[in-house]
Structure formats: structure tokens, C-alpha cells
Design a protein that fits this description.
Radius of gyration: 26 Å
Strand order of the largest sheet: 3-4-14-11
Low-confidence stretches: 512-520
Bound molecules: S-adenosylmethionine
Length: 520
């Protein structure tokens, strides 16, 4: 059927180049529609549904690496189910009052802790303040110098309350949220939902007096939040909260994502393409960590998001040739053979040596026990000392693939530790700096396969590598090939920084931000 003009329904000759979704009979109608409405509706994607992913986003035209796919305004932002004391006005972690009272500033109306008087008027606090204040309940949230990281469970009510209040202030948003995926039946069987049933539900219905919301409505809302919220981390602003985003709630997961996201000053979630995305391709994010093996990623996704991932990485026993889950066969002493999952997306599948002449195999529970031992070993290391991580690597090079997840975690931790000690040392060590360069190159080869392009993982490694080059330069020992590599890395970081203002190249490039901006 020929396309019809979106304005006058006459036969249309061309489509909007931005989204390819609307057709026009000519330029005049396209211009008029742009001014009237399309400016706010033109999108590079559409929401579709299939059996495997449920609703998800698909590109309606080719999207270039670094392009902003969307900016998403949150429906609700606030503390996690248990959170360190934070301000209900501005989301920042709280500082105790200076008057020696060992208290936080408390809102004059509802008594919940805030930064100060100005935050009493914050838009996100206003509606809830009268409900919280009217209840007569006062939370006992005090500074805890002995354990400043202690998380308070009283906060579990705040984000659900903010969404419930949308029914009065933004009913269309409230209705949209009710249609989000919850996985309620599965979540109800978990211990956490037992606790929410006995704490959160009576708090909302009896303490806050919101009797109109049934137990099921409150628990479903909690499940919707657990399935769809994103963690918002802004360390420089001391913010670590969760947010519910309408487009974020439609974004599917893939263990090799083609996007990254950041949060701007207004806490909008900005989704950026990390690689070129072809028209018709799924636009996805990663809900998990790249440096986990397939079993651990899939278990984490099952537990947090209630689905079994079967993406390309999960289905590939070699995980794009990285062998992140692989270990060396204990039977094959002469040749180096790997043990890999026979059926990676089957939790009950066996692990087999890849050498056809070897019969070694491991049951899944043996494999999981092996992983747990390695995890415990890593967790027991002194996180301030590179030596323990180097010993871990030396201990396991004979038994694990050099890109095994636990080896990668130790290598990544080392880059962070060596980077920190370089910035605090009066005289950074050349040997440690060269070790950082070596580790970053190795990890970047993994990142190119698992999270290519402008991904968060690759960007962090490029920043570490760039900082190490700058140190070698300041020590006067940077070789010509290293100088060339430094230049290439810096140029790529400057391109990434243009797509994501949270990436600060001047901090690591050994030159001022002004110089960086002048060059680019
Ligand atoms: C943020 S929601 C995404 C939107 C959801 N598909 C919907 O229809 O409402 C997250 C949920 O989507 C589904 N999902 C996302 N990525 C998936 C994937 N790679 N495989 C299977 N299910 C996935 C899971 O049910 C997950 O809990």
C-alpha cells in the first residue's frame, strides 16, 4: 500500500529521515508537522514485542556509534529497598549536623532526614511530605559513625509511595507503570517478598492510611520496580539511588550490549549507541557485569530480573573466543586443552574437555563449587594491596584460561589498585605503570569482544591506559610506540567524551581540559 501523508493523507513521496516512521506529500507538510508535533515524537526506534524478549526496542533506521538514542525523563527516583541515609529532596547521601547532636537535619513537616531547609521544597519531596507527615510516623534514622555504610530498611517505602502518588499527580503515568513487567508470581515466592508483605504492605495501608491500595497492588508495584529500575550512580555528587524510566522499562538485555547510558544533571537517562546499530536491529543494554562467566551472569539475571538469558554470548561456549568460563583440563598434562560447557544455556549441562581424545568431564555442581572457591579466594584478598592479586594470578595461570572471569576480575582490580597508588604516590613507579599498560592492553582485547566500541568497560580501560601513558611521559620514559598509542587512545577518549559528558579526559590525559578542548 502506498504511504499517505501524515498531514493531509495524500500519496506521500518521502519519509522523515530521522525516524522513517512518518511519510509526507512534500516539504511544506513535513515542516508544518515538525513544528506542530513531530519534533517531540521523532524517534530512532520503536517498541515491539516477541516471545523471547517481551517488549523491546528496535532501530527504525541505522544509528551511528556515539549517537544519542534517547533522553528519558524519570517517573520516579529515590532510595533502594535499603539505603544509606540520603536526602529525600536531592538524593544525596547525608552528612550529620555540625552541632554535635549526632542527628541529621529533619524535615520540619514530616520529620524524615534531609540535607537542609532548601530540600523541604524539592519537587520530588513535596507530595510525599504531607502523606508521611500526616501519618505521625517518625523514622529513627541517625548517623552511625561506627558503620557509615549501614543501610536503613525504612527507605523501602519511598519509591513505591512516589509511584502511588502519581495516580493523583500524573494518572497517565501511573496507568503506564501498571502495565510494566513485574514477574510477581515468581518474586512472591522469594524471602524478600515475605519481608515486604509483613513490613511494606502494612506500612502503606495502615501507617500511611492508603487503604485503597490492596496488598497485591503494593507488592506488584514493588516487583515492577525491582524488574525495571536502573541504578543511578553519580559518585562525584554522592548519589546512589534507583530510578524508574519509561523507555528504560522497555529496554531489553544482552550480554554484549550495543548501548551505554549515563544520567545528566536532571537525572534524565541518556542512552548512547556504543557501536553502529543497523536498521531493524534490537537496541539493548546489559543488566549485568561483563567480567562474569556465563553461569554467574545467567544466575544473576535469573535472580534479579527473573529470566534465563539465551543471547549469543550465553549460547556460545567460547563467549566470542574469550573463554571467560573456561579452565584448563586437569587430565591433559602435555597439551593445553580447555574444559567448556557442553550446553552453556542449560544449568544442568556437563563441562567437557575440548580434546577429543580426553574423556574428562565435570558435573555442573562441581563446576559451580570450583567457581565459588575462586570467588571466595578473590573476596579474601586485601583490596588495598596489589601483591595479593599478583599472587592470585601466579597461582592460577596453570589451571585457568588467561581470560577466565576470575583472572579477568583480578587483572581489572589490579589496574584500579595500581592506578590509585600511582595518583597518591610522590614518585610513581615505572615498573608498576608499565604493568598497568600491559594489563589494560590485555583487558582491552577482551573488551573488544565482549563490550566493543564506546562501552563503559572499554572506556574505563582506555582512561586507565591513558593515565598510565601520562605517568610514563612525566617520568621521561615514554617510548615512541607508546607515544603513538597514547595519542590514539586519547583521540578515541575525546570522541567518547563528546557523546558522554561524564567521561573526563582531562583528568587522565596529562594535560588540562582547555588544551584537550582546543585540540578536538
Ligand atoms: C526492563 S523489562 C524490559 C521490558 C519487558 N520485556 C516488557 O515486556 O515489559 C525487563 C524484563 O524483560 C525481559 N527481558 C529483557 N531482556 C531479556 C532477554 N535478553 N531475554 C529474555 N527476557 C528478557 C525479562 O522478562 C526482564 O525481566
Amino acid at each position: 500500500m502506498p504511504s499517505l501523508c501524515g498531514v493531509c493523507s495524500a500519496p506521500a513521496a518521502h519519509r522523515c529521515a530521522g525516524c522513517q516512521q512518518v511519510a509526507y506529500c512534500g516539504r511544506d507538510h513535513q515542516r508544518a508537522d515538525w513544528k506542530a508535533q513531530h519534533r517531540n515524537q521523532c524517534r530512532r526506534f520503536k517498541v515491539v514485542r516477541n516471545d523471547r524478549l517481551g517488549r523491546h526496542l528496535v532501530a527504525t533506521r541505522g544509528i551511528k556509534q556515539g549517537e544519542i538514542i534517547y533522553r528519558d525523563e524519570p517517573y520516579a527516583v529515590g532510595p533502594k529497598i535499603a539505603n544509606v541515609p540520603l536526602c529525600l529532596g536531592c538524593n544525596r547521601n547525608l552528612m550529620p549536623l555540625w552541632d554535635g547532636s549526632e542527628r541529621f537535619y529533619e524535615c520540619s513537616r514530616c520529620g524524615w532526614p534531609l540535607c537542609g531547609q532548601a530540600c523541604e521544597e524539592a519537587a520530588q519531596h513535596r507530595a510525599e511530605c504531607s502523606v508521611l507527615g500526616g501519618s505521625g510516623y517518625r523514622p529513627n534514622i541517625r548517623p552511625n559513625p561506627a558503620d557509615p555504610e549501614r543501610r536503613e530498611s525504612a527507605y523501602c517505602v519511598i519509591v513505591p509511595l512516589r509511584v502511588l502518588l502519581l495516580e493523583r499527580t500524573a494518572p497517565e503515568r501511573y496507568a503506564t507503570v501498571q502495565g510494566y513487567e513485574s514477574h510477581l508470581a515468581e518474586r512472591l515466592a522469594s524471602p524478600l517478598y515475605g519481608v515486604l508483605r509483613s513490613n511494606l504492605v502494612p506500612f502503606v495501608r495502615s501507617v500511611l492510611g492508603l487503604q485503597q491500595y490492596s496488598e497485591e497492588t503494593v507488592l506488584r508495584l514493588s516487583a515492577i520496580l525491582d524488574t525495571n529500575c536502573y541504578e543511578i550512580r553519580m559518585p562525584e555528587r554522592h548519589v546512589k539511588v534507583r530510578g524508574l524510566y519509561p523507555l528504560g522499562a522497555m529496554l531489553s538485555h544482552d550480554c554484549r550490549p550495543n548501548t551505554r547510558h549515563y544520567f545528566d544533571d536532571r537525572l534524565q537517562m541518556v542512552l548512547v549507541a556504543t557501536v553502529d546499530i543497523a536498521e531493524g536491529a534490537v537496541i539493548h543494554a546489559s543488566y549485568t557485569q561483563p567480567l562474569l562467566g556465563t553461569v554467574q551472569r545467567r544466575l544473576a539475571l535469573r535472580q534479579a530480573k527473573c529470566f534465563d538469558c539465551s543471547c549469543e554470548r550465553c549460547a556460545d561456549p567460547t563467549e566470542y573466543g574469550t573463554h571467560t568460563s573456561g579452565f584448563r583440563c586437569p587430565n591433559c598434562r602435555r597439551a593445553v586443552s580447555l574444559v567448556l560447557a557442553a550446553e552453556p544455556t542449560n544449568y544442568r549441562g556437563v563441562w567437557r574437555c575440548q580434546n577429543r581424545r580426553c574423556a574428562y568431564q565435570e558435573r555442573p555442581e562441581q563446576y559451580v563449587a570450583r567457581c565459588e572457591r575462586l570467588q571466595q579466594e578473590l573476596l579474601a584478598l586485601d583490596r588495598t594491596e596489589p601483591g595479593g592479586y599478583e599472587d592470585f594470578l601466579a597461582r592460577h595461570t596453570a589451571t585457568l584460561h588467561p581470560w577466565n572471569a576470575y583472572i579477568l576480575q583480578a587483572k581489572y582490580a589490579l589496574t584500579q589498585l595500581l592506578g590509585n597508588s600511582r595518583t597518591t604516590a610522590k614518585a610513581p613507579s615505572e615498573a608498576d605503570t608499565r604493568r598497568t599498560v600491559e594489563l589494560c592492553r590485555d583487558l582491552l582485547a577482551v573488551a573488544d569482544r565482549l563490550e566493543p566500541g564506546y562501552s563503559t568497560f572499554r572506556t574505563k580501560l582506555l582512561l586507565e591506559l591513558c593515565a598510565a601513558h601520562a605517568t610514563l611521559h612525566s617520568l621521561g620514559v615514554l617510548s615512541d610506540p607508546e607515544r603513538q598509542e597514547w595519542h590514539t587512545v586519547r583521540s578515541e577518549l575525546e570522541r567518547i567524551a563528546k557523546t558522554d559528558p561524564t567521561v573526563d579526559v582531562s583528568r587522565v590525559s596529562g594535560q588540562s581540559r582547555e588544551e584537550t578542548e582546543e585540540r578536538s
